[in-house]
Prior knowledge:
By secondary structure, chain A is an alpha/beta fold.
Amino acid sequence: MSAPTATEEELLTAEELGRGVRLACQTQALGDCEVDLAEGQEIVVRKDLSKEMLRPFEPAPRVKRIEGELEAPELDDQRSDMLRLSQAGALASCDCRALLSVLHKLPDTLREGDYRVAVTLMDDLLVEIEPLAEAQAPLGVAVDVGTTTVVAYLVDLCTGEFVAASSTQNPQTVHGADVISRIEYGRDTAGGLAALQAEIVGAINRLVGEALAEAGASIEQLYEMTVVGNTAMHHLLLGLDPQYIAQAPYIPVVSQALTLYARDVGIRMHEGGQVFTLPIVAGFVGADTVGVMTATDICNRGPTLAVDIGTNGEIVLWSGERLLCASTAAGPAFEGAKISQGMYASPGAICAADLVDGDLVVRTIGDEPAIGLCGSALFDVTAALLEPGALGINGRLAEDEEGLPAGIAKRMSGEDNGRKVLLANDDDGGAVYLTQRDIREIQLAKGAVRAGIEVLLEEAEISADDLEAVLLAGAFGNQVRPASAVRMGMLPALPPERIEGIGNAAGAGAVLALCSEAERRLACELATRAEHIELATSQSFQMKFMETMLFE
Amino acid sequence: MSAPTATEEELLTAEELGRGVRLACQTQALGDCEVDLAEGQEIVVRKDLSKEMLRPFEPAPRVKRIEGELEAPELDDQRSDMLRLSQAGALASCDCRALLSVLHKLPDTLREGDYRVAVTLMDDLLVEIEPLAEAQAPLGVAVDVGTTTVVAYLVDLCTGEFVAASSTQNPQTVHGADVISRIEYGRDTAGGLAALQAEIVGAINRLVGEALAEAGASIEQLYEMTVVGNTAMHHLLLGLDPQYIAQAPYIPVVSQALTLYARDVGIRMHEGGQVFTLPIVAGFVGADTVGVMTATDICNRGPTLAVDIGTNGEIVLWSGERLLCASTAAGPAFEGAKISQGMYASPGAICAADLVDGDLVVRTIGDEPAIGLCGSALFDVTAALLEPGALGINGRLAEDEEGLPAGIAKRMSGEDNGRKVLLANDDDGGAVYLTQRDIREIQLAKGAVRAGIEVLLEEAEISADDLEAVLLAGAFGNQVRPASAVRMGMLPALPPERIEGIGNAAGAGAVLALCSEAERRLACELATRAEHIELATSQSFQMKFMETMLFE
Lengths: 552, 552
């Protein structure tokens, strides 16, 4: 095997390289060798979104099922099949049109079903007709396209009940963990944009196929998909060129909500299936953030801050009068990338830590032997190291053990930038460390989020104390301990009871948009109402960032 | 070569069989032989529809072109490309959406065109964007799908000017000259329906390609197509099963106007191209008849009768209060089929005849040696034979020459049902005859049309004298001499000045619908207003038919 390239060193963690994980596109076989294909990493994703997790709403999906019986034609009633159908019962009021494929099957379906039929409508478009006795429930799916993880929630559109859910890693991850590296791949590689689109479309098709299989349903039952995702993921899914997002003045191709034919996007659904993408606000405040605004109905609350900590960190502030939003390059640090032994939240990842009797006590996902650490642990470990002074407010690990509790002291080793803290040791001699460099990444990430919050508070002319609630959305929003997030300074110092994890609120927004046209309109209104504050060029942000990087 | 089969005897004329024309699907090669592939028969079609032939109307096509310049984005104006575009100038009022393909090219088109662009809209859908300097005129095409002939009129949608026209034979003709044999082919042959659709779609694609080539335009400029045609042609073009049209109670699949994506129909146009089919009234009163109603704006006239003599004979009566319509099995006799030496209106066809000094004087298309006779000649010859008594009102040719002018007398030969009239003789010994059996076909055809007219007049409670105008539409509506049509009894006895040939009014209706949304609405209103009188089961029709078959 050739030695790891610079690209591999950048894209793979030290732990992965240690395990022999390699990128097929970068590695040369120098002799006979055995290659194990990587299984999809098992990711613990909060896909157990249940109806109870959604705020109350009135189900009123765009897809409607109508059943009934028609009068058979006679010589003194020679109306065409379609006219007869469109003048019957509930259809008479909607001036409906039909897909050509419905017209193709219309004559036989009417006659074989003895004129008792079930029709499926999207707005005033007839997309399916079935003999009443054989009619299948119409389904919809809400998809959250994360930079790292893709989740699908399958819903019965008649009852509004969840039917199944599935999740997978975003296959574009091989081109880089963050959106910028993917945008660059799409821009700089021939066929790159098409490849990125094919990857995410393929992943969604597989994901939806799994959910349908779990529900024992067929693809022909799937009429509508709603999608949230950040602007880059949104554009890559639709094959839109995101390159102008990545350079000033950061312009997306389209920000409005789109209603598209699934076949045009490459998504496998019912022949008339449509894809609704929630609107986006700006190049780095995407449909996922609009999903969060929608799921929290943020403008119907008191002053509220919502922070979505995914691969990027988007911040939304409802001041009671203005709806402000911004994005920060929190980067994928909180998802484990850029952290030397960081990993996704999968079994064996340290996910929490406490300071107990002067020592660190860590917990891993699945109580497996520790093989790395994931985002939520970063908050706890940082907070726990700050407490006894093992970590200074300037972000430097204590240079000697003097004055530190014995438990912590024993964990520290190395010098200067090689200084590190042992988090866990296993019997085989493997060990998980948090390094000085990791702490610098944490400082940058949390400092960016906090500076963004401060800029929005300043713009809205309110103070942190005025906030009734701080909502933590995102894959590990529920995992982060409010006290740790405050202690390490990512959030303003507020009583922990005002800080609430709300799970995958972006996904919840997609589900609401799937189940109710009113929620879809709400999403569009919120996106229009939102004022985007560009932090990339903000003097105020730069000034605050220098302060908020400190652990105080 | 195997001998002609029964099918060939039915589908080919005696003249064609005499020339050695055979059907490839019916003929077996019994030894070495040479096969000449039939060139497309050169058909003289009135494709020279000019703007002057249309009644005055206000051009307001559905496809609109808007040109303008946008403000370039800046850091304090981060609107997405699409939002920027949709809020600019004339677009701001229409809340426009865009095809995904437009979004794909949007960022580069804006930047390469220095934010000066031309956009093309269909309703509120953006279907094209071009740098202003390279913008091409948007075109539309109106297509008249006749049972026998297909005609396309290409129109510049900005100026409303005709750009080109083309016509061809309907390739489905190989499955039979009339609609019933095609419906039966579709029903009884595996894959028949798909084959019939592929044939007509292919013909339209070739036809439109020819018109575009003539205009030096590309397929990407073609945004909209409007279509007229009888119900069976309409259904076959769209792949809709027409079998229930052919059996009582004669039910079409769909009668409403349809707006379809060209790609769903298989028509080659701009990627976002759409096909608008005019509405139909009944199984045998199709979009072609609605085109006639529209082109004549029939409900804004005094009492008017319109007769469209194509392969079927459709009759429309506007009484001043009610709009009635019916179809008769005039059959393809008037187009030359079922007439022993009948042929389409192509060079060498006898197209007119006069009685001069007691003898027939015939005229052929292109003044070529006569090789057969076409529809318009049937009217003249019949009228000319009736005058001196060579043809009785009961439809029998005079059994002897007694009392007949010498010229006519010399032309008659044969006995009983073999009796025939020589129309033309050529130097090589070839001859064109009208036979007793041909006259029976003429009787059936003209009798059916006339009986239909009488039924509608009776239903409307007006008399023929009340008619301000009788309009003859159809491929040879302009060729038929009013006096002959009255003399042989197809039309009521009205002064010839009230009878007017109006050419391809169905096609004119398609052109109007292409150029104006108001005309499209008019077509829909007329189709809804039209009351269909079913003649197939009408007692009154049967009674009248027995009388109207007579030549009186």
